[in-house]
Automatic annotation (TrEMBL), chains A, B:
SUPFAM superfamilies: Homeodomain-like (SSF46689), Tetracyclin repressor-like, C-terminal domain (SSF48498). The keyword Ribonucleoprotein does not apply. Keywords: DNA-binding, Transcription, Transcription regulation. The keyword NADP does not apply. This is TetR/AcrR family transcriptional regulator. It holds the Pfam family TetR_C_13_2.
Length: 195, 195
DNA sequence: ACCTCTCTAGACCGGTCGGTTTAGTGTTCG
DNA sequence: CGAACACTAAACCGACCGGTCTAGAGAGGT
């Protein structure tokens, strides 16, 4: 056998995550995933018996977890709340710039498409956001912020960054991500200080 | 003739705007638009000779303009920067709640799908955001804010609201929209005051 | 050696996709 | 009255959709 155990599965998953992120669920065909990953159709349905839905749910969960780790690393190196949020902004903005404004949030496009109907894809997207928010909330708490305050601030930061990412992709200009991160970071520092 | 001049065209456009908003561009078939609007296929290609792309571009532009008017009305009734931004939040949150979390931003889903490639749809989405931002910026300037300050604050408010709308749709809970609007409103008031 | 189990390979399916074409219907205006 | 026009109506097209199925290649165990 040419590939080692599970290698094809991983390659399909990665390709699918990239395509879903950039084009959305409905606009991405399985044929495209297969062509770009170099896998035959039989392999796809061997590894993902529930078809496109399972593939998308797993792809979103994986992409979300990977981005979560990158976020955690950025947060770990931050000196305080303001630094933490500008670091998140820088991380996301860099992803945009490095991909010619194709890679924004790994789950946002699919999340919006699937927001209407329940199912594993929606669950995976929702879980991803809650994972990220949990990580940020805990980091803020580590700087002495109260539980509810940290949670609300994390919501505010995540919302702002997500929206800025959307605006930046549409404009093909990442300036807004940096400026929004800077402002929200300043608010976070202020709230942490006056506590 | 059963319908008056252009009535079928308007009905197709409205149905298309609703479906694109909720499901995205790729996931919405022309057949569905036709079925729900009650129009035959021939009429669609008579009124929109460039097909699906033209339909989507016009639908986004119309939906964006309508929302822009609703936003302008909300802004017109506001007493100051804080009031203005909470009013926008209330408007958007109400749309979510009234539609069982289906109607968020009328263009966001399509905008993300089409962010990668240039074309009339992307242009319509970008134009919509710039229209909204222009309206908010001018309203802020009316309260004595400097040009650049108003522009940056409008970017911040729009980003935050868009992101909150995304989060709220995924969670099926509009709380985050209200809380984000309140906080950003407070910042806006503070900036306007200390000027 | 051989069997078994995992995984690859791709032909094939019915259905739906966006799009085209042709015929016809009602209105308007000369 | 009848020709020109605006629009409706739906049959039809090739391409592609997601999904199924069967055949076989390769590695590991005994």
């Amino acid at each position: 056998m040419a590939q080692s155990r599970g290698e094809t599965r991983a390659r399909i998953l990665r390709t699918a995550a990239d395509l879903f992120q950039r084009q959305g669920y409905g606009a991405t065909g399985l044929t495209q995933v297969l062509t770009e990953s170099g896998a035959p159709k039989g392999s796809l349905y061997f590894h993902f018996p529930q078809g496109k839905e399972q593939l998308a749910a797993e792809a979103m969960a994986q992409a979300g977890a990977e981005m979560g780790e990158r976020m955690a690393a950025a947060l770990a190196g931050a000196a305080g709340p303001a630094d933490a949020i500008t670091a998140l902004g820088a991380l996301l903005a860099q992803g945009l710039e490095n991909s010619d404004y194709r890679d924004g949030c790994p789950v946002a496009t699919v999340a919006l498409e699937e927001a209407g109907d329940a199912g594993p894809i929606h669950d995976a997207c929702q879980g991803t956001y809650e994972l990220w928010l949990l990580g940020l909330t805990e980091r803020l708490r580590g700087w002495g912020m109260a539980e509810q305050e940290a949670r609300e601030l994390a919501d505010l930061a995540m919302s702002s960054l997500q929206g800025a990412l959307l605006l930046a992709r549409v404009r093909r200009d990442s300036t807004v991500v940096h400026s929004v991160a800077r402002r929200i970071g300043a608010i976070a520092a202020q709230e942490a200080g006056q506590k």
